[in-house]
Write a structure and sequence with these properties.
single chain, about 110 residues, about 65% helix
Length: about 110
């Protein structure tokens, strides 16, 4: 049986509040609104996680735009996890969305 709706909703609301608080000084609301250069500057990514993301550039032909989108998805996963830093498993989760369906390319779409 999956996780109940109430704890999921609570975790999403907490993640949204973390994002609002983090970007309030920039006039932004959430990770998705960050331009690429600002996302890279504000990311708070642990060194091993950054190495994995950099390796994905070569391994999965990740473009600069795809890199930025993966970083923002990883930041959101970290927020849902309650983590101040993007860790290895957060980047792994973000990259899994991209490689799960290469025809759709969820991270590079848009």
């Amino acid at each position: 049986m999956g996780e109940r709706s109430a704890p999921i909703r609570d975790r999403v609301e907490a993640a949204r509040e973390r994002q609002r608080a983090r970007y309030r000084h920039l006039g932004l609301y959430c990770n998705a609104e960050l331009p690429g250069p600002l996302a890279r500057r504000e990311a708070r990514i642990a060194a091993p996680a950054e190495e994995l993301l950099a390796a994905a550039v070569d391994r999965h032909a990740l473009t600069g735009r795809g890199f930025d989108r993966a970083l923002k998805v990883a930041r959101t996963i970290a927020d849902l996890d309650g983590s101040d830093a993007i860790e290895l498993d957060h980047v792994g989760g973000a990259l899994a969305y991209r490689v799960a369906d290469p025809e759709r390319d969820l991270i590079g779409a848009g």
